[in-house]
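Input:
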Amino acid sequence: MSKLQRILSHAEQQCQINGSRLTDKRKKVLSGLLQSDRALSAYELVDYCNETYDENFAAMSVYRILEFLEQEQLVHKLNLANRYVACGHITCDHQHEVPQFLICTDCQSVKEFSISRSTLGSIKRQVEQANFHLVSEQIELNCLCKSCAAA
Amino acid sequence: MSKLQRILSHAEQQCQINGSRLTDKRKKVLSGLLQSDRALSAYELVDYCNETYDENFAAMSVYRILEFLEQEQLVHKLNLANRYVACGHITCDHQHEVPQFLICTDCQSVKEFSISRSTLGSIKRQVEQANFHLVSEQIELNCLCKSCAAA
DNA sequence: CTCTGTTATGTTACATCACAACATAATCAA
DNA sequence: TTGATTATGTTGTGATGTAACATAACAGAG
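Output:
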């Protein structure tokens, strides 16, 4: 059983537990993200699925499927790049911290990482001092990955 | 001389120093942002200018003008919201720190603020440990402002 | 002042993005 | 089997962002 297969079936089980279904189409979209080493836009996923599976995904469907996968915490939406990535921890069973993301502005590769609690805490404190309130701890940072920085 | 006037003429001087020109149209776009208490999209600015000045700005022009104003550091583009704000420090003469932004996801009001050097430093360190390199210290955070949080 | 290169703006056309609204199909539960 | 719920198909549209080319305004050299 390939790694991809394992992740997919794990995701399927998670959905069952949540009373939702990981349908064929949803699996295909998720696979697309899992097999990509970078963040993909909705329309890139449309193309990917149509080419790879010889299907006919409409953009609308992909948007809906992405929304679903997000709810199930199987993918993350990167607001800074308007792109999507598979969650890096699908096969983990524990509850995760809210992730932060490093996005390479050149090649769109993404690293899901965690800022230390204390740093996050001081960010939150400073935000509150400014009379705002953090909506989400999902912080996204524009970066260059190592190889793009070298070039 | 109104506050707006002062800011505009100061901006104009800055442009002259940089060997660029703050034309009439560019002034109008900048005024739009200066007078707004929230971040505006390019098309909102198109409408604003056309209504306020009875002109006929094309979207294309506004995009170009915004690009110019950004280069001159008179406005900032908020990638997270696809919107623009006037720089909060146009009239300051000293070099600024790179700003961070708190964006109210409800009303689009924006606060330009600065994370402490030490917090910023620890973010940068953690990013480097992850083998990425921060492209910009302009960090944008999705927030709720005080009044929207209350509602 | 005129010529010329540069910069700014006008205009048209188009590609992309995101989703609303409604129709049909598949699935589940009783 | 039937009715309710969920998933997908289909059509259309508003918003976004920009390329490509045309014209106009301006600044400096002669």
